[in-house]
Design a protein that fits this description.
Blueprint: H1 2-26, H2 30-72
Length: about 90
């Protein structure tokens, strides 16, 4: 009876190991590599889009500052535009 128990445990563990190894091996097949590359490219594209959105937001904010300064008749100088108090 003990032998049957250990045989069952061995078969279960063996099946789990084979299944885990098959999953790992699938990652190195051409389809697995292509999926990984596709996922990485998608993440890179999302990062680039996020960066572009941040740059556009910054440009719009700066444009509003320039329009406000123009409307008030204040001169905008590249030296003082970096910070509010004019220091670098």
């Amino acid at each position: 009876m003990k032998r049957m128990l250990w045989l069952g445990i061995g078969l279960a563990v063996g099946a789990l190991v084979v299944r885990a190894a098959a999953k790992k091996a699938q990652a190195f097949t051409p389809q697995g590599v292509a999926g990984s590359v596709r996922e990485s490219a998608g993440d890179l594209l999302d990062s680039v889009r996020s960066f572009i959105d941040d740059v556009r937001d910054g440009m719009a904010e700066r444009e509003q500052e320039i329009h406000a300064a123009f409307a008030e008749g204040v001169a905008i100088d590249a030296e003082t535009a970096d910070t509010e108090d004019g220091s670098r």
